[in-house]
Amino acid sequence: MFVPAWLIFLVSGTLMAVLAILWAVRSGQFEEQDRARYLPLVGLTASEMSKQPPVRRGASFYGILLIFASGLLTLAATLALVIEVS
Q1: DSSP assignment of 16-78, as one string?
Q2: Residue 70 CA to its chain's centroid (Å)
């Protein structure tokens, strides 16, 4: 009775991780690795460092938010199931 709840949690977490990796590969999150390698070596002036970066909330932000929310809902459902069974 305790094991099925954790199996549901394990399977749903694995599924969400696979979906996140597939989304990252399809949207090009792993592209331009050569450019990213040299970013720590690029010097910024004091005025450039004081500027706030622009806030961009596109489809990727809402996709990650949806994955996070579904994880929280799965955790809540699993805990409710465990509490109900015990």
Answers
A1: HHHHHHHHHHHTTTT--HHHHHHGGGS---HHHHHSPPPP---HHHHHHHHHHHHHHHHHHHH
A2: 11
Give the Å distances, CA to CA, from 58 to 21, 53, 55, 61, 62.
18, 15, 10, 6, 7
Type of residue at 79? L
- Answer yes or no: are the C-beta atoms of 19 and 67 closer than 8 Å: yes
Residue that has been written with the tokens 């459902």 in this structure: 77
Each residue's pLDDT, cut to its tens digit, for the chain (86 residues) gives 678 888 888 999 999 999 999 998 898 887 767 766 666 666 766 677 677 777 778 888 899 999 999 999 999 999 998 888 76
